[in-house]
Amino acid sequence: MTRPIVIAIDGPAASGKGTLARRLAAAFNLPYLDTGLLYRAVARRVLDRGGDPADPAASEEQARSLSRLDLERGDLRTPEVDRAASAVASIKPVRAALLDFQRRFADASGAVLDGRDIGTIVFPEADVKLFVTASLDVRAKRRHLERLAHGIDPGFDSVRAELAARDEADRTRAAAPLVQAKDALLLDTSHMDANHAFTAAADLVNKVLARG
Ligand SMILES: Nc1ncnc2c1ncn2[C@@H]1O[C@H](COP(=O)(O)OP(=O)(O)OP(=O)(O)O)[C@@H](O)[C@H]1O
Ligand SMILES: Nc1ccn([C@@H]2O[C@H](COP(=O)(O)O)[C@@H](O)[C@H]2O)c(=O)n1
């Protein structure tokens, strides 16, 4: 029996990781997990209870109580949750509580997972690792367009500042910081549309898998 394939995709906020991961999962017939949703759902639970996402005890308690239903909520992608998710994600016991779920997700059939520490911590032995990035201005433009499409206009400068602050927090935290794994392939999509990025990523995945 062949071992299930794991594809790890990491990168900064709004780099297009999720868009790419979803398409790769469909193309390679693998289940897909957006691991950012786990941190978002923990943050949402803390906020709903009037807690402080930076409080380790409150956040660990909610990470340990997380259920699949929490991941299906429609209010996990607000700017408030963006910030709170990044805060709970810096707490070691929160990350520890979510680690098993992420690993077990790929047990049966393999998976494509996207996040910040998939290639470094969650699946250091992943078959393929991509680090997807784009310049801050390009990412801010994409996220701004996304917010406009949802009928919200926080302004380009505010979106850009929020992304920069979240990246800085994710890169400099002590627990599982955002960093390109040594063996991850870099994909800079600053000058690629989503189709171009997908074709480039699929080529990289095919090349790595063909090497065996
Ligand atoms: N190559 C691309 N060119 C233009 N727009 C893109 C590209 N890739 C993704 N997008 C768009 O940019 C926005 C952000 O993409 P996506 O949500 O996939 O990023 P992400 O890295 O998963 O973000 P987050 O870290 O916040 O979860 C979406 O609106 C998506 O449709
Ligand atoms: N593997 C991961 C995934 C996410 N995070 C943290 O969650 C925040 C929200 O993630 P999105 O991918 O939905 O933007 C993110 O800013 C990280 O702080 C993480 O630490 N590890």
From TrEMBL:
This is Cytidylate kinase. Keywords: ATP-binding, Cytoplasm, Kinase, Nucleotide-binding, Transferase. InterPro entries: Cytidylate_kin, Cytidylate_kinase_dom, P-loop_NTPase. HAMAP family: Cytidyl_kinase_type1. It is found in: Cytoplasm. ATP binds at G11, P12, A13, A14, S15, G16, K17, G18, T19. It is an enzyme of class 2 (transferase). It holds the Pfam family Cytidylate_kin. It catalyses: CMP + ATP = CDP + ADP; dCMP + ATP = dCDP + ADP. It comes from the Bacteria. GO terms for cellular component: cytoplasm. One of its GO terms (biological process) is pyrimidine nucleotide metabolic process. Its main location: cytoplasm. One of its GO terms (molecular function) is CMP kinase activity. The gene is cmk. Belongs to the cytidylate kinase family. Type 1 subfamily. Its EC number is 2.7.4.25.
